[in-house]
Design brief:
The complex is a heterodimer. Chain A is of the alpha/beta class. Chain A folds into two domains: 178 residues, P-loop containing nucleotide triphosphate hydrolases (Rossmann fold, 3-Layer(aba) Sandwich); 73 residues, no CATH class. Helices cover 38% and strands 23% of the residues of chain A. Chain B is mainly α. The radius of gyration of chain B is 23 Å and the shape is flat. Chain B has two domains: 35 residues; 212 residues, Orthogonal Bundle (MetI-like fold). In chain B, α3 crosses α11 and α6 crosses α7. Chains A and B meet through β6 and α2 of A and α8, α9 and α12 of B. The complex binds adenosine-5'-triphosphate and magnesium ion (MG).
Chain lengths: 262, 260
């Protein structure tokens, strides 16, 4: 079967012919339903990789293929969430979550007449992330962690096949972070959604992912791919096994080396 | 005694107390140093003049309020439209910005004679001067609101297939509204400056006209009466704009995600 995401020999340069070469010779394959994590030194092109997959940037060289088609413009089968929740402060949480439906072509036509249906869907998502009953609150009435949960709901409302997360948990406290790891883990498990997660937190990567891509310093390319075979469903306790700690160590050393080369 | 004192909301009372304080100080200083009325009349004399000349003052105050408001409304419509246009495209922004800065730097009093040549002495130059002077801060504020959309918000929407128009409607315009309503307070104050300049130079009614007439007759209390009326109109309109701002964009004062 063809992978859902396939990046082939991609070069991406910002700002014209002699601008910054962000990634070079990039090769990534993510199967449908897989949970992939991307780790690497700061500034190595992880966010660039996300933007390439979503079609926000088109590479100068190589090919990005998502769901069997070459990406030449934004692909609306993805949902995105960033480190910053980026909710719109003039909309209630519920209206923020419904925002993608006002954009994605196949939903925007149905939205007005089937609004109740969509609202029910949004409320179900809110419940999944532990925000039941907060739909009519404004973002500034929520804590940072709650806003991040809402932004996850927004990424999921149009039922994307692919969820792209760029350090979504980086600004949260340790407990909230672990809680949200479990939320993502369960979403992935239950909905069979494909996830690409960029993170600096190696424990997060090893706990959640099936496959971890380690990137080199800029210009970024894939140095190594680790398979994580820890059986699912994974409990938070797996983080205290020696196997887990060793994997985290191994990754840590690889990234330290990648940084040193730069 | 203490019960009465503690029931007063000192914060609410402060503007009135300070204003009264200013007038009392002014009155006392003028009397103490026996300043001539031609130089600085005391408030009591000014209020006497307001009562004495009330019909003329009232008529001219209404005229100034009228020219200012019409010019201001034009500035709001024009400023909003141009601000959206400039915020829409970087090229239009790049092209128009220096022109507008240059235009804004021109003292508007220098434009009044041209307006008089075109439209004659009277109401229209006053309205247009108010418009010209009030319009710039609105444009700049609306354009700033549009130009500072967080790139991540834009990415989230563009990844879903949003076109430029979607992003403007869903994010840009709502986002620029606090900037827009915030600029109204500045714009209304400037509009008064514009209309009064024009009335002073080239009009036959309005507070500016009245004050320049009073000045040529050395009727200094009437000049000050005109200034007081202008201040009152200015404060009232400012308060109205502040109230509208509060009503329309309460969310911007609450949210820390936006420095509005
Ligand atoms: N819009 C842009 N214009 C020019 N250069 C850019 C742009 N975005 C990123 N870059 C450059 O491309 C390189 C990769 O950036 P990217 O944001 O993908 O890194 P990253 O791995 O996400 O970093 P971090 O871990 O700090 O988030 C960086 O060196 C950066 O300087
Ligand atoms: Mg990044």
């Amino acid at each position: 079967m063809q992978p859902l995401v396939q990046i082939e020999n991609v070069d991406m340069r910002y700002g014209g012919a002699d601008g910054t070469l962000a990634v070079t010779g990039l090769n990534v394959k993510v199967e449908k339903g897989e949970f992939a994590a991307v780790v690497g030194p700061s500034g190595c092109g992880k966010s660039t990789l996300m933007k390439l997959v979503t079609g926000l940037h088109i590479p100068q060289q190589g090919q990005v293929i998502v769901s069997g088609e070459e990406v030449t413009e934004p692909v609306s089968i993805v949902g995105m969430a960033f480190q910053n929740p980026t909710l719109l402060p003039w909309r209630t949480t519920l209206d923020n979550i419904l925002l993608p439906l006002e954009i994605v072509q196949r939903h925007r036509k149905r939205l007005r007449r089937h609004r109740d249906e969509y609202v029910a869907e949004a409320e179900k998502l809110l419940e999944t992330v532990g925000l039941k009953g907060f739909g009519d609150k404004f973002p500034w009435q929520l804590s940072g962690g709650m806003q991040q949960r809402a932004s996850l709901c927004r990424a999921l409302i149009h039922q994307p096949e692919l969820l792209m997360l760029d350090e979504p948990f980086a600004a949260l406290d340790a407990f909230t972070r672990e809680e949200l790891w479990c939320v993502i883990r369960d979403l992935h498990q239950e909905q069979g959604i494909t996830v690409v997660l960029v993170t600096h937190d190696l424990r997060e990567a090893v706990f959640l992912a099936d496959k971890i891509f380690v990137m080199s310093a800029r210009p970024g390319r894939i140095l190594n791919v680790h398979k994580i075979d820890t059986p699912r469903p994974r409990d938070l306790d797996v983080m205290y096994t020696t196997e887990f700690t060793e994997k985290v160590h191994e990754l840590r050393n690889e990234i330290a080396e990648a940084r040193a080369v730069a | 005694m203490t019960g009465f004192m503690s029931r007063i909301d000192w914060l609410k009372a402060a503007p009135w107390l300070y204003t009264i304080g200013l007038f009392v100080f002014w009155e006392a200083a003028v009397r103490l140093f026996s300043v001539s009325q031609i130089i600085l009349p005391p408030p009591s004399v000014i209020f006497g003049a307001i009562i004495q000349y009330w019909p003329a003052i009232w008529k001219n105050s209404l005229q100034t309020l009228y020219t200012t408001t019409v010019g201001f409304v034009m500035a709001v419509v024009g400023g909003l439209a141009l601000g959206l246009l400039i915020g829409w495209s970087r090229q239009i922004y790049a092209g128009l910005y220096p022109l507008m800065v240059g235009f804004n730097a021109i003292p508007k009093v220098a434009v009044v004679p041209i307006l008089v040549i075109w439209f004659g002495i009277g109401t229209i130059p006053a309205i247009l001067t108010a418009f010209l002077i009030a319009f710039f801060p609105i444009v700049v504020n609306v354009a700033t609101g549009l130009a500072t959309i967080e790139p991540e918000v834009e990415d989230v929407l563009r990844a879903l297939g949003a076109k430029k128009l979607d992003i403007m409607l869903k994010v840009g315009i709502p986002r620029s509204m606090p900037y827009f309503f915030g600029s109204l307070k500045v714009a209304i104050t400037l509009a008064f400056v514009g209309s009064v300049i024009s009335e002073t130079v080239a009009a036959n009614s309005g507070l500016g006209f009245m004050m320049s007439g009073a000045q040529s007759q050395f009727n200094v209390p009437l000049v000050f009466a005109g200034l007081i009326m202008l201040a009152i109109e200015g404060i009232a309109m400012y308060a109205l704009m502040a109230w509208i701002e509060q009503r329309m964009t309460g969310w911007a004062h609450r949210s820390s995600t936006m420095a509005g």
